[in-house]
Amino acid sequence: MLMPEPDAAVLARRPQLVDALKRLIDPAGVIADPIALRAYENDGLTAYRQPPMIAVLPRDTAEVAAILRFCHQERIKVVPRGSGTSLSGGALPLADGILLGLGKFNRILEIDYDNRCAVVQPGVPNLAISHAVAERGFYYAPDPSSQIACSIGGNVAENSGGVHCLKYGLTTNNLLGLEIVLMTGEVLRIGGKHLDANGYDLMGILTGSEGLLGVVTEVTVRLLRKPETARALLAGFSSSEAAGQCVADVIAAGIIPAGMEMMDRPATHAVEDFVHAGYPMEAEALLIVELDGPEVEVDHLLSQVCAIAETNGATSQRASASEQERLLLWAGRKAAFPAIGRISPDYYCMDGTIPRSKLPQVLARMDELSRRYGLRVANVFHAGDGNLHPLIMYDANKPGELEAAESFGADILCLCVEVGGVLTGEHGVGVEKRDLMPRMFSDVDLDQQMRLKCAFDDKQLLNPGKVFPVLRRCAELGAMHIHRGQLPRPDLPHF
């Protein structure tokens, strides 16, 4: 994995940089011990590891601004980090960089029920917001599978989704305001408790920017009322094609479930052995469809979905009869990743999105790739919006298996683009998909994206080596290329 070459001059200044940082913030928040730094050497993409030069743990926005201002002046690279649950290597440190950990930003600052929003710090776990407002009948909608651990700041950086994003949207659809610190140390406030902001959609630009544009220090999120009723339907099918057609038919009928998830047989068996949710073990594909809203509406829609599933040859159907049973059905799906971890020494979790109609074709091709590479794959995905999460199982201790898993994963992502999809749905590009970006974007597209990066971070100090496939500087975008001594367009004046 090609990363920016460490700057020997910066590494030589490490002791002086440590001393300077200890003067900026509480010395206890500056970590330089090589053993202690091991805790930060990777995120959820454990295949790649690199301890940072220094880790810093600021306590407030002023300290973040001071650190970034200092690093900008000294030309020191900075990698922001939330809870470290990223699955794309987005928080992979740099050997000559500072890792900026936001774990101490863990307070819910305000809950405003009148305006149905909450103001939180970026280190607050996703699920903690829903827990804090549950007694008043509210919740925060985006619910990644890692919601017990992943931080809101990380959710903003990756534009995280979850099993209920089909109806309630991704992180970007549930944000009202952000406080961010630029690489220069300047603090910006964007949006707020009001519905819409004037001018350019800067919040839309920052959401999903993977720590390349600024560091989030405060987030205002939208709160929703819990639906009156929610019921989940568990349906088994004899083939992935039948389950995929059921998904298409439900959407075509004008029904938008709160969530619609699918698992293939290997994933179902791994999850059932782990959670014991009562999944049908004989099914080749499993659908979980949740309907929510007023009770009479939910009962009506549930009967419609049951009829559609039966038309598509469902081999079994079971609707939750209680809230406890509904949560158990979802517990299995949300435990899919750790369940696979019980049956394989290592696994590589991919993230690509395809048109729903291409699901049978893509699953068939993945089965062919599995046989070609000699690696097992289990599939769990957000069926409603076509966001796939193939889990490639391998053993890193066996020579060549990690490389095979990487190639297998790259082929899956290229397949997603080939059928009209995209490289990522919610995990981000990071380092994992960085070198595949030209499969989806032209040089012109990538240059335009780089110009936006340069507008926020002209020295390329924030999270370098991520997202963009070619490691280059902002100045190179405007460089004039001279071929055989000839200027381009000699008929035009050059200044």
From TrEMBL:
InterPro entries: FAD-bd_oxidored_4_C (IPR004113), FAD-bd_PCMH (IPR016166), FAD-bd_PCMH-like_sf (IPR036318), FAD-bd_PCMH_sub2 (IPR016169), FAD-linked_Oxase-like_C (IPR016164), FAD-linked_OxidoTrans_Type4 (IPR051914), Oxid_FAD_bind_N (IPR006094), Vanillyl_alc_oxidase_C-sub2 (IPR016171). This is FAD-linked oxidase C-terminal domain-containing protein. Its cofactor is FAD. It holds the Pfam family FAD-oxidase_C. Keywords: FAD, Flavoprotein, Oxidoreductase. It comes from Dongia soli. Residues 48-226 form the FAD-binding PCMH-type domain.
